[in-house]
Amino acid sequence: MSAPRTSRSADLQRLVDDGYEVAIVAGYLVVRDVPYVDRYRRVRRGQLVSTLDLAGDRTIAPRDHQAWFAGALPCDREGRPLVNMVHAQHQRRDLGGGLVVDHWLCSKPIGREFVDYHEKMVTFVHQISSHAVALDPSATARTGRIVAADGSESPFHYVDTATSRSGIGNLSDRLAGQVIGIVGLGGTGGYVLDFLSKTPVARIHLFDDDLFLQHNAFRAPGAASRDSLAERRAKVDHFDRIYSRLHRGIVPHRVRMGCTTAHLLDGMDFVFLCLDDPSAKRPMIDRLEDRGVAFVDVGMGLQAGNDGLTGVLRVTTSTAEVRDHVWDRNRIPMAGAIDDDPYSTNIQVVELNALNAALAVTRWKRLFGFYVDLGAEYFATYDVAGNYIINEDTTK
């Protein structure tokens, strides 16, 4: 872990100053090269891993008195398991970022919690390593070595402690490194960006040539200020300014997508098509299919009546392996006139924009194994009045 990051938290810096090998991996605090005794009374080295609670780059008091251990089962100097602190033996688990742990530990100060991470990690290290020291007085976790940066840069400006807190880093890794495109930043496209910005994809390319105006503020994520609306910024610049605070890889393109610009989608791993105009979709779909790029196309058709709004949300998925339904069953409206498209009445309501985006992003995550995909549907509709989803074009 780099010195500047530890220096902002006194407890982490004390660990470094004390000579411990400290790193932050996949949102977890790690102390490496911790000596311990195995069941054969051999002195070995393992890793101590703790969840990490942060406010920005600064730690707050630990919320628990538990930790993971990566290595064989820690034992005392006689080779007997440390049953008082090992609460789950041989529970091998992938925490993400290449961090794999084996045992669940627990140790609590009498009558209180740990005051900071220095106290927590040093306490665990001492309880494990004291038995190793009894067999080898030179055994110590205070090696004085500084953990070198591995050269990989997080897509986030600050540590993702939500994923580590949930213990799903190995699943989040399945989304890492992707290059994603979002075409259209109306209500639905803005929420697609909001959801994607919390994932470890490498880059998110934004494509839209419109301005962010007052009506957009009422169906977009967040709350635009009156002053920002007066600036009449492009949608891509408006969203770039917001989401670049969290994600490093936001790439805005103020451009109208069509025949002459569809090539900008080359090199994407996945694309979300969130356009109002069905006639603009054909050249992009042709290009994506030609390049073997998977995509999701969303649509919304709402009608107003005396009893309220009714309508349908649509999510159409297309991959290199499953594409025929798009054409054989006309699953994506691409009519020359918007009036021919039942999904383009232009009534938009913020929660349905968000729901349409959530269905699309959830489908993408199921394709890449973040969620279990039992449905394997490539066309889905949500009926607003009936509150039900119909899955079609399934492959299972």
UniProtKB/TrEMBL annotation:
Taxonomic lineage from the root: Bacteria, Pseudomonadati, Pseudomonadota, Alphaproteobacteria, Sphingomonadales
NCBIfam families documented for this protein: PRK06153.1-3, PRK06153.1-4
Residues of the DUF6791 domain: 10-161
Pfam families reported in the protein's UniProt record: DUF6791, ThiF
Coiled coil: none
Top-level taxon in the UniProt lineage: Bacteria
GO molecular function: ubiquitin-like modifier activating enzyme activity
Span of domain THIF-type NAD/FAD binding fold: 173-299
Organism listed in the record: Sphingomonas turrisvirgatae
Record-linked InterPro entries: DUF6791, ThiF_NAD_FAD-bd, Ubiquitin-activating_enz
Name of the molecule in the record: Uncharacterized protein
